[in-house]
Write a structure and sequence with these properties.
Largest sheet: none
Strand content: under 5%
Low-confidence stretches: none
Radius of gyration: 18 Å
Shape: globular
Structural class: mainly alpha
Helix content: over 70%
Length: 177
């Protein structure tokens, strides 16, 4: 049920996902959904956990065998591709708070951070700065991907070229630490 909800969210946007729409898509009556999820909020949390897990897998696989700028580029590209391919499910992750350390949202979110932390190992980022560097990477990748997903780049410069420029900019900044 969660995968079907995530697919609908990608199609119509997480804000437009309803239990009625999901029931229609999977061919059941709306009350039948409540055997699988506790309601729309529960479904949204489960979609967020799924999205974070999928993004973690994408980034983790992308960085294997790479270090430094190559790892940074692989992680950034994998993250961007995930957001562009799954805008609704990724949007479900924004602002969702884990209920505790065993919450699937926390576990999957931690795995995603692990992928970006692996990128930082290729740079001279000292322990006190790791959190700052992770926030910088998330801000750059999230910001670019969500703006692109929302068709937020309306000017003539090539978007892919701009993204490669962003990667080079982040690499120079991390190397300067």
């Amino acid at each position: 049920m969660v995968a079907a909800g995530a697919a609908v969210a990608d199609e119509v946007g997480i804000a437009n996902l309803t239990m009625g729409l999901l029931a229609e898509r999977v061919g059941v009556r709306t009350p039948s959904l409540y055997k699988h999820v506790g309601g729309l909020e529960d479904l949204g949390r489960r979609i967020a956990a799924l999205a974070l897990s999928e993004a973690a897998d994408a980034v983790g696989c992308a960085v294997q065998g790479y270090a430094g700028r190559d790892a940074l580029a692989a992680a950034a590209r994998a993250f961007r591709t995930f957001v562009l391919d799954h805008p609704g499910r990724y949007a479900a992750t924004i602002g969702v708070e884990p209920t505790g350390p065993d919450d699937p949202v926390a576990t999957a979110g931690g795995r995603l951070l692990d992928g970006f932390t692996a990128v930082l190992r290729g740079y001279a980022v000292e322990e006190p700065d790791v959190d700052h560097a992770l926030r910088m990477l998330r801000s750059l990748c999230h910001g670019f991907a969500t703006l692109q997903s929302a068709n937020g780049f309306q000017w003539s410069a090539d978007v892919d070229e701009s993204f490669e420029w962003l990667i080079a900019f982040a690499d120079r900044g991390l190397r300067a630490l």
